[in-house]
Protein backbone atom coordinates (compact mmCIF):
# COMPACT_ATOMS: atom_id res chain seq x y z
CA UNK A 1 0.00 0.00 0.00
CA UNK A 2 0.83 3.68 -0.15
CA UNK A 3 0.69 4.87 3.45
CA UNK A 4 0.49 8.54 4.42
CA UNK A 5 1.30 10.54 7.56
CA UNK A 6 -0.90 13.65 7.50
CA UNK A 7 -0.07 16.94 9.15
CA UNK A 8 -2.64 17.77 11.83
CA UNK A 9 -4.40 21.08 11.25
CA UNK A 10 -6.36 21.52 14.47
CA UNK A 11 -5.51 24.76 16.28
CA UNK A 12 -3.06 24.07 19.09
CA UNK A 13 -2.21 20.56 17.86
CA UNK A 14 1.51 19.85 17.60
CA UNK A 15 1.67 16.05 17.68
CA UNK A 16 2.41 13.76 14.76
CA UNK A 17 0.90 10.29 14.42
CA UNK A 18 4.18 8.54 13.49
CA UNK A 19 7.83 9.40 14.03
CA UNK A 20 10.63 8.54 11.55
CA UNK A 21 11.26 5.28 13.47
CA UNK A 22 7.79 3.89 12.70
CA UNK A 23 7.94 5.22 9.14
CA UNK A 24 11.11 3.15 8.65
CA UNK A 25 9.37 0.01 9.95
CA UNK A 26 6.46 0.42 7.53
CA UNK A 27 8.92 1.05 4.71
CA UNK A 28 10.79 -2.16 5.60
CA UNK A 29 7.49 -4.05 5.40
CA UNK A 30 7.45 -3.19 1.70
CA UNK A 31 5.07 -0.24 1.64
CA UNK A 32 5.53 3.27 0.26
CA UNK A 33 5.50 5.98 2.94
CA UNK A 34 4.45 9.56 2.22
CA UNK A 35 4.77 12.25 4.88
CA UNK A 36 3.12 15.64 4.54
CA UNK A 37 5.64 18.46 4.72
CA UNK A 38 6.40 19.58 8.30
CA UNK A 39 3.99 17.01 9.76
CA UNK A 40 6.40 16.24 12.58
CA UNK A 41 8.27 19.54 12.85
CA UNK A 42 6.45 20.91 15.91
CA UNK A 43 7.04 17.60 17.71
CA UNK A 44 10.75 17.70 16.97
CA UNK A 45 10.99 15.58 13.79
CA UNK A 46 12.30 17.21 10.61
CA UNK A 47 11.43 16.41 7.03
CA UNK A 48 15.03 15.30 6.52
CA UNK A 49 14.72 12.70 9.28
CA UNK A 50 11.73 11.12 7.56
CA UNK A 51 13.54 11.19 4.22
CA UNK A 52 16.54 9.45 5.76
CA UNK A 53 14.21 6.57 6.65
CA UNK A 54 12.95 6.27 3.08
CA UNK A 55 9.80 8.41 3.25
CA UNK A 56 8.78 10.85 0.54
CA UNK A 57 7.85 14.38 1.63
CA UNK A 58 4.63 15.65 0.02
CA UNK A 59 3.72 19.32 -0.07
CA UNK A 60 -0.07 19.45 0.10
CA UNK A 61 -2.96 17.78 1.89
CA UNK A 62 -4.72 17.37 -1.45
CA UNK A 63 -1.85 15.32 -2.91
CA UNK A 64 -1.73 13.14 0.22
CA UNK A 65 -5.40 12.23 -0.09
CA UNK A 66 -5.08 11.72 -3.83
CA UNK A 67 -2.13 9.33 -3.69
CA UNK A 68 -2.50 7.39 -0.42
CA UNK A 69 -4.40 4.13 0.07
CA UNK A 70 -4.17 4.49 3.85
CA UNK A 71 -3.87 7.73 5.85
CA UNK A 72 -3.26 8.38 9.55
CA UNK A 73 -3.24 11.48 11.73
CA UNK A 74 -3.80 12.33 15.40
CA UNK A 75 -7.02 14.36 15.60
CA UNK A 76 -10.35 14.63 13.79
CA UNK A 77 -10.72 14.98 10.05
CA UNK A 78 -11.11 18.70 9.38
CA UNK A 79 -13.98 20.13 7.34
CA UNK A 80 -11.51 21.19 4.65
CA UNK A 81 -10.61 17.50 4.22
CA UNK A 82 -14.15 16.12 3.85
CA UNK A 83 -14.23 16.47 0.08
CA UNK A 84 -10.80 14.82 -0.28
CA UNK A 85 -11.87 11.46 1.16
CA UNK A 86 -12.46 8.83 -1.48
CA UNK A 87 -14.01 5.40 -1.83
CA UNK A 88 -12.12 2.46 -0.25
CA UNK A 89 -9.49 4.78 1.24
CA UNK A 90 -8.52 3.75 4.78
CA UNK A 91 -8.27 6.39 7.53
CA UNK A 92 -7.08 5.89 11.12
CA UNK A 93 -7.44 8.84 13.49
CA UNK A 94 -9.24 10.06 16.62
CA UNK A 95 -12.61 10.67 14.97
CA UNK A 96 -14.75 10.98 18.14
CA UNK A 97 -17.66 10.09 15.83
CA UNK A 98 -20.57 10.28 18.29
CA UNK A 99 -19.84 13.97 18.88
CA UNK A 100 -19.21 14.91 15.23
CA UNK A 101 -22.21 14.13 12.99
CA UNK A 102 -20.97 16.23 10.05
CA UNK A 103 -17.66 14.38 10.03
CA UNK A 104 -19.46 11.03 10.15
CA UNK A 105 -21.69 12.03 7.26
CA UNK A 106 -18.67 13.04 5.16
CA UNK A 107 -17.00 9.68 5.85
CA UNK A 108 -20.18 7.79 4.92
CA UNK A 109 -20.69 9.84 1.78
CA UNK A 110 -17.13 9.14 0.64
CA UNK A 111 -17.53 5.35 1.15
CA UNK A 112 -14.12 5.29 2.79
CA UNK A 113 -13.04 2.87 5.55
CA UNK A 114 -12.52 4.69 8.85
CA UNK A 115 -11.15 3.57 12.22
CA UNK A 116 -11.61 5.73 15.29
CA UNK A 117 -8.29 5.38 17.09
CA UNK A 118 -9.55 6.13 20.60
CA UNK A 119 -11.56 2.87 20.63
CA UNK A 120 -8.69 0.68 19.43
CA UNK A 121 -6.38 0.68 22.46
CA UNK A 122 -6.24 -2.63 24.33
CA UNK A 123 -4.29 -1.18 27.27
CA UNK A 124 -5.61 2.38 27.19
CA UNK A 125 -4.39 5.25 25.08
CA UNK A 126 -1.04 6.92 25.68
CA UNK A 127 -2.91 10.15 25.03
CA UNK A 128 -5.05 9.48 28.11
CA UNK A 129 -1.95 9.05 30.24
CA UNK A 130 -0.49 12.25 28.80
CA UNK A 131 -3.72 14.18 29.34
CA UNK A 132 -3.93 13.06 32.97
CA UNK A 133 -0.33 13.83 33.86
CA UNK A 134 0.00 17.10 31.97
CA UNK A 135 -3.56 18.14 32.88
CA UNK A 136 -2.60 17.92 36.55
CA UNK A 137 0.36 20.24 35.93
CA UNK A 138 -1.83 22.63 33.93
CA UNK A 139 -4.18 22.75 36.91
CA UNK A 140 -1.31 23.68 39.20
CA UNK A 141 -0.40 26.48 36.83
CA UNK A 142 -3.99 27.74 36.86
CA UNK A 143 -3.84 27.74 40.68
CA UNK A 144 -1.16 30.45 40.65
CA UNK A 145 -2.26 33.86 41.90
CA UNK A 146 -0.98 35.46 38.70
CA UNK A 147 -3.37 33.26 36.70
CA UNK A 148 -6.48 33.95 38.79
CA UNK A 149 -6.12 31.06 41.23
CA UNK A 150 -6.07 31.19 45.01
CA UNK A 151 -2.28 30.84 45.06
CA UNK A 152 -1.77 27.61 46.97
CA UNK A 153 1.42 25.57 46.53
CA UNK A 154 0.73 21.93 45.82
CA UNK A 155 2.54 20.39 48.82
CA UNK A 156 2.26 23.38 51.09
CA UNK A 157 5.06 25.27 52.84
CA UNK A 158 6.27 25.33 56.45
CA UNK A 159 3.22 26.54 58.34
CA UNK A 160 0.95 26.53 55.25
CA UNK A 161 -1.07 23.42 54.30
CA UNK A 162 -0.91 21.82 50.87
CA UNK A 163 -3.68 21.61 48.29
CA UNK A 164 -6.70 19.36 48.56
CA UNK A 165 -7.55 17.80 45.20
CA UNK A 166 -10.64 15.87 44.12
CA UNK A 167 -10.16 13.57 41.12
CA UNK A 168 -13.38 12.37 39.50
CA UNK A 169 -12.79 9.01 37.83
CA UNK A 170 -10.21 6.35 38.63
CA UNK A 171 -9.45 5.16 35.11
CA UNK A 172 -6.23 5.71 33.20
CA UNK A 173 -6.67 9.49 33.02
CA UNK A 174 -7.53 9.85 36.69
CA UNK A 175 -4.76 7.56 37.89
CA UNK A 176 -2.25 9.43 35.75
CA UNK A 177 -3.29 12.75 37.29
CA UNK A 178 -3.16 11.15 40.74
CA UNK A 179 0.37 9.83 40.12
CA UNK A 180 1.64 13.36 39.50
CA UNK A 181 -0.28 15.17 42.22
CA UNK A 182 0.25 12.64 45.00
CA UNK A 183 3.97 12.47 44.28
CA UNK A 184 4.13 16.28 44.54
CA UNK A 185 2.49 16.20 47.95
CA UNK A 186 -1.14 17.11 47.29
CA UNK A 187 -3.88 15.71 49.54
CA UNK A 188 -5.90 13.66 47.06
CA UNK A 189 -9.36 12.12 47.03
CA UNK A 190 -10.44 9.90 44.14
CA UNK A 191 -14.10 9.20 43.40
CA UNK A 192 -15.34 6.40 41.17
CA UNK A 193 -18.43 4.20 40.82
CA UNK A 194 -16.35 0.99 40.86
CA UNK A 195 -15.37 -0.27 44.31
CA UNK A 196 -12.74 -2.52 42.77
CA UNK A 197 -11.04 0.53 41.29
CA UNK A 198 -11.17 2.37 44.61
CA UNK A 199 -9.78 -0.63 46.46
CA UNK A 200 -6.92 -0.96 43.97
CA UNK A 201 -6.03 2.74 44.28
CA UNK A 202 -5.98 2.47 48.05
CA UNK A 203 -3.73 -0.56 47.88
CA UNK A 204 -1.37 1.07 45.37
CA UNK A 205 -0.88 4.14 47.55
CA UNK A 206 -0.84 2.33 50.92
CA UNK A 207 -4.15 3.98 51.83
CA UNK A 208 -2.54 7.45 51.66
CA UNK A 209 -5.15 8.49 49.07
CA UNK A 210 -8.76 8.96 50.14
CA UNK A 211 -11.38 7.14 48.05
CA UNK A 212 -15.14 7.63 47.89
CA UNK A 213 -18.09 6.46 45.84
CA UNK A 214 -18.76 8.99 43.08
CA UNK A 215 -22.17 10.53 43.71
CA UNK A 216 -23.40 14.07 43.36
CA UNK A 217 -24.17 14.12 47.07
CA UNK A 218 -20.62 13.09 48.06
CA UNK A 219 -19.14 15.66 45.69
CA UNK A 220 -21.38 18.42 47.06
CA UNK A 221 -20.36 17.59 50.63
CA UNK A 222 -16.63 17.68 49.80
CA UNK A 223 -16.44 20.72 47.49
CA UNK A 224 -16.20 23.44 50.19
CA UNK A 225 -12.79 22.12 51.29
CA UNK A 226 -11.42 21.28 47.81
CA UNK A 227 -8.87 23.53 46.09
CA UNK A 228 -8.83 21.77 42.72
CA UNK A 229 -11.21 19.38 40.94
CA UNK A 230 -9.97 17.28 38.03
CA UNK A 231 -12.70 15.67 35.93
CA UNK A 232 -11.59 12.43 34.29
CA UNK A 233 -15.01 10.81 33.82
CA UNK A 234 -16.04 9.57 30.38
CA UNK A 235 -19.61 10.74 30.83
CA UNK A 236 -22.34 8.76 29.00
CA UNK A 237 -23.56 11.06 26.25
CA UNK A 238 -27.19 10.08 26.81
CA UNK A 239 -26.99 11.19 30.48
CA UNK A 240 -28.33 14.74 30.66
CA UNK A 241 -27.48 15.22 34.34
CA UNK A 242 -24.17 16.62 35.67
CA UNK A 243 -21.79 15.55 38.42
CA UNK A 244 -21.04 19.22 39.07
CA UNK A 245 -23.71 21.72 38.06
CA UNK A 246 -23.37 25.51 38.07
CA UNK A 247 -25.00 25.94 41.47
CA UNK A 248 -22.34 23.69 43.03
CA UNK A 249 -19.58 26.10 41.96
CA UNK A 250 -20.77 28.42 44.75
CA UNK A 251 -19.64 25.78 47.24
CA UNK A 252 -16.00 26.27 46.21
CA UNK A 253 -13.75 29.08 47.43
CA UNK A 254 -12.93 31.87 45.01
CA UNK A 255 -9.79 31.05 43.06
CA UNK A 256 -10.35 27.29 43.20
CA UNK A 257 -9.56 25.43 39.97
CA UNK A 258 -11.61 23.03 37.87
CA UNK A 259 -9.70 21.07 35.21
CA UNK A 260 -12.01 19.27 32.78
CA UNK A 261 -9.71 16.75 31.12
CA UNK A 262 -12.62 14.66 29.81
CA UNK A 263 -13.67 17.79 27.97
CA UNK A 264 -17.17 16.90 26.79
CA UNK A 265 -19.94 19.27 25.83
CA UNK A 266 -22.96 18.05 27.81
CA UNK A 267 -20.50 16.04 29.89
CA UNK A 268 -20.09 15.78 33.66
CA UNK A 269 -19.38 19.50 34.22
CA UNK A 270 -22.23 21.89 33.37
CA UNK A 271 -20.00 24.99 33.25
CA UNK A 272 -17.62 23.44 30.68
CA UNK A 273 -16.76 25.23 27.46
CA UNK A 274 -13.77 24.28 25.34
CA UNK A 275 -10.64 26.44 25.53
CA UNK A 276 -7.32 26.46 23.68
CA UNK A 277 -3.64 26.50 24.61
CA UNK A 278 -3.56 30.17 23.54
CA UNK A 279 -6.45 31.11 25.88
CA UNK A 280 -6.67 28.17 28.29
CA UNK A 281 -8.79 29.42 31.20
CA UNK A 282 -11.91 31.35 32.08
CA UNK A 283 -13.50 32.20 35.43
CA UNK A 284 -17.10 31.37 36.29
CA UNK A 285 -18.58 31.97 39.74
CA UNK A 286 -15.05 32.67 40.95
CA UNK A 287 -13.75 29.24 39.89
CA UNK A 288 -10.89 29.08 37.36
CA UNK A 289 -11.80 26.62 34.59
CA UNK A 290 -9.10 24.93 32.48
CA UNK A 291 -10.81 23.17 29.55
CA UNK A 292 -8.25 22.66 26.77
CA UNK A 293 -9.29 19.74 24.56
CA UNK A 294 -5.89 18.59 23.34
CA UNK A 295 -3.71 18.76 26.46
CA UNK A 296 -1.23 16.15 25.10
CA UNK A 297 -0.38 18.58 22.29
CA UNK A 298 1.54 20.64 24.86
CA UNK A 299 4.05 17.80 25.26
CA UNK A 300 4.09 16.94 21.57
CA UNK A 301 7.43 15.14 21.44
CA UNK A 302 6.88 12.73 24.30
CA UNK A 303 3.28 12.03 23.34
CA UNK A 304 4.13 11.49 19.66
CA UNK A 305 6.92 9.04 20.50
CA UNK A 306 4.76 7.03 22.90
CA UNK A 307 1.59 7.15 20.79
CA UNK A 308 3.31 6.17 17.55
CA UNK A 309 4.87 3.12 19.21
CA UNK A 310 1.50 2.07 20.66
CA UNK A 311 -0.49 2.22 17.40
CA UNK A 312 2.18 0.82 15.07
CA UNK A 313 0.94 -2.80 15.50
CA UNK A 314 -2.55 -1.76 14.35
CA UNK A 315 -1.23 0.09 11.32
CA UNK A 316 1.08 -2.78 10.33
CA UNK A 317 -1.70 -5.33 10.73
CA UNK A 318 -3.99 -3.39 8.39
CA UNK A 319 -1.18 -2.75 5.91
CA UNK A 320 0.17 -6.31 5.90
CA UNK A 321 -3.02 -8.34 6.36
CA UNK A 322 -5.81 -6.13 5.03
CA UNK A 323 -8.80 -4.70 6.92
CA UNK A 324 -10.77 -7.94 7.16
CA UNK A 325 -7.98 -10.12 8.56
CA UNK A 326 -6.77 -7.35 10.89
CA UNK A 327 -10.26 -7.10 12.39
CA UNK A 328 -10.43 -10.87 12.87
CA UNK A 329 -7.12 -10.90 14.72
CA UNK A 330 -7.78 -7.92 17.02
CA UNK A 331 -11.14 -7.25 18.62
CA UNK A 332 -10.10 -3.78 19.80
CA UNK A 333 -9.30 -2.78 16.24
CA UNK A 334 -12.57 -4.36 15.07
CA UNK A 335 -14.66 -2.40 17.57
CA UNK A 336 -12.98 0.82 16.41
CA UNK A 337 -14.17 0.36 12.83
CA UNK A 338 -16.45 3.38 12.41
CA UNK A 339 -17.51 3.23 8.77
CA UNK A 340 -17.04 0.71 5.99
CA UNK A 341 -17.78 1.66 2.39
CA UNK A 342 -20.84 3.74 3.21
CA UNK A 343 -22.09 1.70 6.19
CA UNK A 344 -21.92 3.05 9.74
CA UNK A 345 -20.31 0.41 11.96
CA UNK A 346 -19.99 2.32 15.26
CA UNK A 347 -22.64 1.48 17.86
CA UNK A 348 -22.36 4.55 20.09
CA UNK A 349 -22.66 6.86 17.09
CA UNK A 350 -25.78 4.99 15.98
CA UNK A 351 -27.40 5.49 19.38
CA UNK A 352 -26.39 9.13 19.88
CA UNK A 353 -27.11 10.31 16.33
CA UNK A 354 -30.06 7.99 15.67
CA UNK A 355 -28.40 6.48 12.61
CA UNK A 356 -28.80 2.86 11.52
CA UNK A 357 -25.65 0.78 11.87
CA UNK A 358 -24.20 -2.64 11.10
CA UNK A 359 -21.87 -4.67 13.31
CA UNK A 360 -18.30 -4.74 11.94
CA UNK A 361 -18.35 -8.57 11.86
CA UNK A 362 -21.54 -8.49 9.77
CA UNK A 363 -20.40 -5.92 7.24
CA UNK A 364 -17.04 -7.71 6.90
CA UNK A 365 -18.73 -11.15 6.70
CA UNK A 366 -16.52 -12.63 9.39
CA UNK A 367 -19.23 -13.89 11.77
CA UNK A 368 -18.08 -17.51 11.40
CA UNK A 369 -14.39 -16.73 11.97
CA UNK A 370 -12.57 -17.25 15.26
CA UNK A 371 -12.67 -13.63 16.40
CA UNK A 372 -10.41 -12.07 19.01
CA UNK A 373 -12.62 -10.81 21.84
CA UNK A 374 -12.94 -7.21 22.97
CA UNK A 375 -15.58 -5.65 25.25
CA UNK A 376 -17.76 -2.85 23.84
CA UNK A 377 -15.99 0.51 23.77
CA UNK A 378 -18.82 2.24 25.69
CA UNK A 379 -21.95 1.13 27.58
CA UNK A 380 -24.17 2.80 24.97
CA UNK A 381 -26.23 0.27 23.01
CA UNK A 382 -28.18 0.55 19.75
CA UNK A 383 -30.67 -1.84 18.10
CA UNK A 384 -31.14 0.44 15.09
CA UNK A 385 -29.66 -2.07 12.64
CA UNK A 386 -29.15 -1.70 8.92
CA UNK A 387 -30.41 -4.43 6.64
CA UNK A 388 -27.38 -5.53 4.64
TrEMBL record:
GO cellular component: plasma membrane
Secretion signal span: none
Domain (Alanine dehydrogenase/pyridine nucleotide transhydrogenase NAD(H)-binding): residue spans on this chain: 143-291
Gene3D superfamilies assigned to the protein according to its UniProt record, in alphabetical order: NAD(P)-binding Rossmann-like Domain
Entry-linked InterPro entries: AlaDH/PNT_N, AlaDH/PNT_NAD(H)-bd, NAD(P)-bd_dom_sf
Domain called Alanine dehydrogenase/pyridine nucleotide transhydrogenase N-terminal: residue spans: 4-131
Gene Ontology biological process: alanine catabolic process
UniProt KW Oxidoreductase keyword: yes
GO terms for MF: alanine dehydrogenase activity
Protein name: Alanine dehydrogenase
